[in-house]
Amino acid sequence: MKSFSLFSAATLALAFAPSAFSLPQASPVASSSSSASSSASASASSATGTSANSTVSNVNSTSANVPAAGPYGLDNVRCDPITLTTKINSSNVNFTNVDDNYNNDTYILQEILEYTTDQTNWTANHMSKEKQPFNATYDISGHYCTPIQNAKQNSSLLFAVHGIGFDSKYWDFSYSKNYSFVRHAASHGYSSFIFDRLGCGNSSIPKTGGFSALQAPTEVAIVQNLLGQLRNTTVVGNKKFDKITYIGHSYGSVLGNAVSATTPQLIDNLVLTGFSANSSYNANFAQAGALQKFSEIQGLTNNTQPGIYIGSNNVSAVQLFLDPPNYSQQAALLGFQQSQPLTLGQFFSLSTVSAPAMNYTGPVFVVDGERDFPFCGRQCNAASGNYSNMAAASQQLFPATKNFTSYLQPYTGHAISLSPYSGEAYERVLAQIIATGN
Ligand SMILES: *[C@@H]1O[C@H](CO)[C@@H](O)[C@H](O)[C@H]1NC(C)=O
Ligand SMILES: *[C@@H]1O[C@H](CO)[C@@H](O)[C@H](O)[C@H]1NC(C)=O
Ligand SMILES: *[C@@H]1O[C@H](CO)[C@@H](O)[C@H](O)[C@H]1NC(C)=O
Ligand SMILES: *[C@@H]1O[C@H](CO)[C@@H](O)[C@H](O)[C@H]1NC(C)=O
Ligand SMILES: *[C@@H]1O[C@H](CO)[C@@H](O)[C@H](O)[C@H]1NC(C)=O
Ligand SMILES: *[C@@H]1O[C@H](CO)[C@@H](O)[C@H](O)[C@H]1NC(C)=O
Ligand SMILES: *[C@@H]1O[C@H](CO)[C@@H](O)[C@H](O)[C@H]1NC(C)=O
Ligand SMILES: *[C@@H]1O[C@H](CO)[C@@H](O)[C@H](O)[C@H]1NC(C)=O
Ligand SMILES: *[C@@H]1O[C@H](CO)[C@@H](O)[C@H](O)[C@H]1NC(C)=O
Ligand SMILES: *[C@@H]1O[C@H](CO)[C@@H](O)[C@H](O)[C@H]1NC(C)=O
Ligand SMILES: *[C@@H]1O[C@H](CO)[C@@H](O)[C@H](O)[C@H]1NC(C)=O
Ligand SMILES: *[C@@H]1O[C@H](CO)[C@@H](O)[C@H](O)[C@H]1NC(C)=O
C-alpha cells in the first residue's frame, strides 16, 4: 500500500460568506431566509421551503435522462426535530503552544498564515505526537425527515453530515424545493437523518476549547456515537436502523472517510460529495477566505458565537463555493445569511483523521461539482495519476470497496446544495443508493 500524504495543506471549506454589497437585497430571499431559520428549530414542516424566483442565467440541462424528482414528488416529506445526547471519549490531537480560548483577530490571522505557508513547521511546533484523551457530553440537534407516503421498507437511513460554513439546513436548503436533498430522498421513499455538527446551529456550542474541544477527532467520535444510537436504540424513528447510507459534504465527507477507516461496520454505503484525495488547493482556499472572528461578520442570521468561532465575509467566497455565472445570487445570499462558524482546531486537525479505509467493503460514490475549488482547484475533470479525474482518484482511499463510482456535476462548484444543478446531482445520488440495493 502506498502512503498517503492527504490534506497536507489542510482540508477546509470556509464559512460561506460572499459580501452582501455585491448581492441583491431581494426581499423574497429575506422572507425565505427567515422561514428557513425557523424551520431548523421547530415543527414537522421544516422542509417546507419556498420556491423563490430563480435569477440564474445559463442554466442548461446537463442530462436529459435524469428525472427532476422521484415518483412521489418533492412535497412528500415531513421533518421532526430530535436532539440526541452524545457522550464521547476520543483520542484527540494534543495542541501545544496555542491559545485554546483565543478571541483575537491578529492571532487568528497569524496562525492561519503560519499553518498554510509552512504546515510542517506549524505541526512540529504545535501538535504533540502524543494523543490527548478527551471525554465530553454534547447535545446534537437534528431532524428525522421521512416520506409522508410510500416510505421504502428495509432501505438505508440516509445519514447526512454537512461541511464547514453550514449546518443541517445544507441538506434541506430552502431556496427552492429542488435544492433540498431530503426532499429528493423522500421523493424516492427514503428517510434521512440530518444534524447540526458541534458548534453549529442548535447543537451544543462550546464557549471554550477552540483547539482542545472543537477538533476533528471529537467530531468523528460524535458521528460514531450517533450512528451507534441509530443502529442500537429506537430514539430516532421509533426503530433500529440496520442499514445506513452515510452522505457527507466536504468536512462531513472527510469525517465519513475517517469513520469508514476506523469503524467500517457502522456504514453500509458511503456517498462523499465535495471531496477528493487531493489537498493541494486547500491553502489557497483558506487564505482567500480571510478568516476573522465570527461575531464581527455582518449580515448573518446569528453571529453571537464566542470568540473562538471564525468565518469569512470575503466576496471571493462566491468564487470559492459556486461556479459563476452558473448560480443564483439569491440562493448565494440565503446561504451566506445562514453561515455557520468553525474553529482553528477544527481546521488544523482535519488532516489527522483522513486515512485509507482498509476494511470498508461497502459501495462508495464520490460526487463533485466539476469546478470544485477546495478539493480540485476548479478542475475536477483533470486526470490524476491513473485515474480519469480527481473524483475517481478518491478510489485510492477505498482499496476494499466492492463498488466504487464517481460523478462530476457540470457547471457546479463546491457547495452542491447551493447550485442550480443540485437537483440533478441529488437524483444521481439517489440512483446510486437504489442501484446498490440500499
Ligand atoms: C417571479 O417573477 C415574476 C416576474 O418578475 C413576478 O411576477 C412573480 O411575482 C415572481 N414570483 C415570486 C414567487 O417571486
Ligand atoms: C447554455 O446554453 C446556451 C445556448 O446553447 C449557451 O450559449 C450557454 O453557453 C450554455 N451555458 C453553459 C453554462 O454552458
Ligand atoms: C477513554 O479512552 C481511553 C483510550 O483512548 C481509555 O484508556 C479510557 O479508559 C477511556 N475512558 C472511558 C471513561 O471510557
Ligand atoms: C492578539 O494576538 C496577537 C498575536 O498572538 C498578540 O500579539 C496580541 O497581544 C493579542 N492581542 C490581545 C489584545 O490579546
Ligand atoms: C519554525 O518555527 C520556529 C518556532 O516558531 C521558528 O523560530 C522558525 O523560524 C520556523 N522555521 C521556519 C523555516 O519558518
Ligand atoms: C501534550 O503535549 C505536551 C507538550 O508536549 C505534554 O507536556 C503533555 O504531556 C501532552 N499531553 C499528553 C496527554 O500527552
Ligand atoms: C472523563 O470521564 C471520567 C470518568 O467518567 C471523569 O472522571 C472525568 O472527569 C472526565 N473528564 C472530562 C474532561 O470530562
Ligand atoms: C423487510 O425485512 C424483513 C426482515 O428481514 C422481511 O421479512 C421483509 O420481507 C422485508 N420487506 C421487504 C418489503 O423487503
Ligand atoms: C450495538 O449493540 C451490539 C450488540 O449489543 C454491540 O455489539 C455493538 O457494539 C453496538 N454498537 C454500537 C455502535 O454501539
Ligand atoms: C444564536 O447562536 C447561539 C449560539 O452561539 C445560540 O445559543 C442561540 O440560540 C442562537 N440564536 C438564534 C436566534 O438562533
Ligand atoms: C482490518 O481488519 C483486520 C482483520 O480484522 C485487522 O487486523 C486490522 O487491524 C484492520 N485494519 C484497520 C485499519 O482497521
Ligand atoms: C455499482 O454502483 C453503480 C451506481 O453507482 C450501479 O449502477 C452498479 O449497478 C453497481 N454495481 C454493482 C455490481 O453493484
From TrEMBL:
List the Pfam families: Abhydrolase_1 (PF00561)
Region annotated Disordered, chain positions? 40-62
Name of this protein: AB hydrolase-1 domain-containing protein
Q: Which InterPro entries does the UniProt record give? A: AB_hydrolase_1 (IPR000073), AB_hydrolase_fold (IPR029058)
> What is the residue range of the signal peptide feature?
1-22
The AB hydrolase-1 domain covers 161-330
What keywords tag this UniProt record?
A: Signal
